[in-house]
Amino acid sequence: MKKVTLGLFALSFAVESVACGHNSPGHAGGPSHTVVRPDSVKWGPPPPSLPPGCEVAILVGDPRKPGPYVLRAKLPDGYVIPPHWHPSDENLTVVQGAFLVGSGDKLDPSATEPMPAGSFCHLSAGMRHFGVAKGETVIQTHGIGPFEVNYVHPADDPRK
Description:
This protein is mainly beta. It has one helix at 2-19; strands at residues 55-60, 67-75, 80-85, 90-103, 113-116, 120-123, 129-145, 150-151.
């Protein structure tokens, strides 16, 4: 009985590893690991889908393409991301400063939840949400691309 149980455990571990991509060539950039130290982050202008004034750095992947990505955004104090939604899940971690997250179609800073450095938030695909930086803030977002921003109110879209 122990051999059968041990065998089933080993088989389930192997199946889970393959299903999660641990043995897949090229998964998340290949068989080697990636280290990005704070002093080596290469900041650049934001994509057209974000309001001007922030800086963005892509750590892994390409958020414009299908597949995993990790990006950071450096936001000045008071920076606002108006109500929007994404067609895929967004995972957000506050690296520095504080980020105020709210949900809904209307920007209401008084109805936000403060997220100090170290906080994590999962935002489901299609969920309407907005954010405000409190102090200079760095957020890290990761998910499965392509990463798209769809504004609830067309007038808020910086691409227009």
